Amino acid sequence: MTRTTRTHTLTFGRPVPGAEPGPDGRWRLTWTGTAVMGILNVTPDSFSDGGKHAALDAALHAARRMRDAGVLILDIGGESTRPGADPVPAHTELDRLLPVIRALAGEGVVLSVDTMKPEVAAGALRAGAHLINDVTGLRDPEMVRVCAEAGAPACVMHMQGEPRTMQKNPVYADVVAEVHGFLRAQAARVLAAGVPDVLLDPGIGFGKTLEHNLALLRATHALTAGLHPVLIAASRKRLIDYLAGVPDAAQRDPGSLAIHLHAARQGAALVRAHDAAGHVQALRVQAALEP
Ligand code: HH2
User: Has 168 been annotated as catalytic?
Assistant: First the structure.
């Protein structure tokens, strides 16, 4: 079996669209090859799509289009994490997220919520979300407790620093060893505390220079050789501008796809994308071309 046709599993402590119940009382979502996590930012200020889905009907329309295109997971965000972003209070984030989650909860797609705040995660999971995507890598023990109690798996992402300052002067002795080491240690800690499963994400663009990002992307195979499914999320990020001269973030889908097809060949279980339909199409074609 090649890396692009490998089978991946994510375990949940409660029922989830598409997941099968197991004898241990848990539900397993299984897929083959690299699936797409579609991005739905319901924020006024996200770096490439801020304000586009702020109205509920626009958000639901975009979500349903991604679902129909074949994404496995929708990742809904109510706070921008772009470099320099100002934090928003939990109640503002919840006001943005909850109507979208409630409307989509019965619609047959797995819902991830992109949040750094345990109280937002708890409210989102109560409203029907299934998975928590925390760019701080569940460093807050309260976030671990919330996920464990709700039976929700989590995406553990690596970030050096915090969004407001992370791009100032990131320094590593060995970026691949440090990032992979952090992810493996966090995975063990979080699973031991009762979170049913984890996705691992090296956090492209989060406290990393272009060279750091490239080293991590080239080493994706080392992370996918481990026990946990890996998510790569480079969609429309600034490294594409550095590599190909595309200052307008909304024009970076071709570069995003190039990175994500590379990640798929290195065994990534998921790629997180704004152009979800384009990614589903390209990944299906790539998988068919594998010997
Ligand atoms: N990147 C962003 C947001 N969430 N989550 C994970 N797991 N990995 C990432 O690399 C990641 C993420 C930033 O992208 P986006 O959501 O498009 O923008 P913003 O944070 O400005 O809303």
Answer: no
Atom of ligand 1 nearest to the CA of 114: 4
pLDDT in tens, 219-229: 999 999 999 99
Q: How many helices (H) and strands (E) does the chain have?
A: 10, 11
pLDDT digits (tens, 9 = 90+) for 51-99: 777 789 999 999 999 999 999 999 999 999 887 778 899 999 999 999 9
Of 269, 238, 284, 235, give the one whose Cα is nearest residue 39: 235
Neighbours of 173 (CB within 10 A): 6
Triad 62, 67, 68: Cα angle to 5°: 100
Q: Can 272 be counted among the known catalytic residues?
A: yes
48 lines ligand 1 (CB under 6 A): yes
116 lines ligand 1 (CB under 6 A): no
The CA–CA distances, whole Å, from 263 to 5, 234, 257, 258 equal 13, 10, 10, 9
